[in-house]
Amino acid sequence: MEEIEVPLEQTQEHLQHESLHGGHGGGHGHGVGAEIAGFSLINIGAVMSAVLAVFAAICALLAGHYSNEAMIEQIKASDQWSYYQAKGIKGALQEFRLEMNATDGEKVDKIKERIEKYKKDQEGIQEAAKEKEEASEKLLTWHERLAMSVTFFQVAIAVIAIGVLTRKKFFFFMGAGSGLIGLVSFISFFFIR
């Protein structure tokens, strides 16, 4: 049985030659080896895509983290509101007891103390619940900013890939612009914190 020869070496040499020497297009934006400042569009696109993918991964990880934290804070706020309602119910029950024991002075004083205690407790619980809600909203804002960055990075990677495949500098620059918007959005995240 004869061994089938696959021309991999020739193909690799051809690709290396194209990427190093700019191919047949002469760097006019439509040839195989379109160049920007002497570098192959393929090489620049590959490096930019890799860098953008790293930023997208970091932003996605942070966005997920802040989304989870926002949800946890919202759950804590809901727990506080439930606790607030429980204190209100206890207070209402004490008011009912007050009406039932209106003639017994000693019991009335104790019941009034409990009612006041529940109202005071409710004030503190309400404040804690509102703080948790504000924290949740803040974390959700951070998540949204990072998610927006991820979107721009992903669009940039896709458009740069189109630019590399079609050898059109226009797409390459559009992708770079999208990546720049994503980067600005990511950097601005640190200022909104």
Notes on the structure:
With 193 residues, this protein is mainly α. The chain has one domain. It contains four helices and two strands, in the order H-E-E-H-H-H. Strands 1-2 form a two-stranded antiparallel sheet. A hairpin with a 2-residue loop joins strand 1 and strand 2 (39-40). The radius of gyration is 32 Å and the shape is rod-shaped.
How would you briefly describe this protein structure?
The protein is an all-alpha fold and 193 residues long. The protein is 83% helix and 2% strand.
Describe the SSE topology:
Elements lengths: L7 H14 L13 E2 L2 E2 H60 L4 H62 L2 H24 L1
Antiparallel strand pairs: 1-2
Radius of gyration over alpha carbons? 32 Å
β-strand number: 2
CA-CA gap between termini: 69 Å
Secondary-structure element pattern, one letter each: HEEHHH
Structural class: mainly alpha
Count of separate DSSP helical elements: 4
- Secondary structure: helix percent: over 70%
Question: Based on CA inertia axes, which overall geometry fits?
Answer: rod-shaped
Strand content: under 5%
What count of domains describes the coordinates?
1
Mean pLDDT: 84
Give the biggest sheet.
2 strands, antiparallel
The low-pLDDT segments are 4-8, 23-33
Q: Going across the major beta sheet, what is the strand order? A: 1-2
